[in-house]
Recover the amino acids of this structure.
């Protein structure tokens, strides 16, 4: 299941984070990072998924 979440996180980083933690603060941080740059959003999303 984590592999699927990582693939989703690469395509749509906020969705990957939302599937992992819901709509809590990491999701909103990821939205901000994705808006600032796509790569920081991906890195954050993969980090959140791998950490939990």
């Amino acid at each position: 299941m984590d592999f699927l979440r990582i693939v989703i996180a690469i395509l749509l980083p906020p969705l990957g984070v939302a599937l992992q933690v819901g709509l809590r603060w990491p999701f909103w941080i990821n939205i901000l990072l994705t808006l600032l740059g796509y790569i920081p959003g991906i890195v954050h999303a993969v980090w959140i998924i791998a950490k939990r």
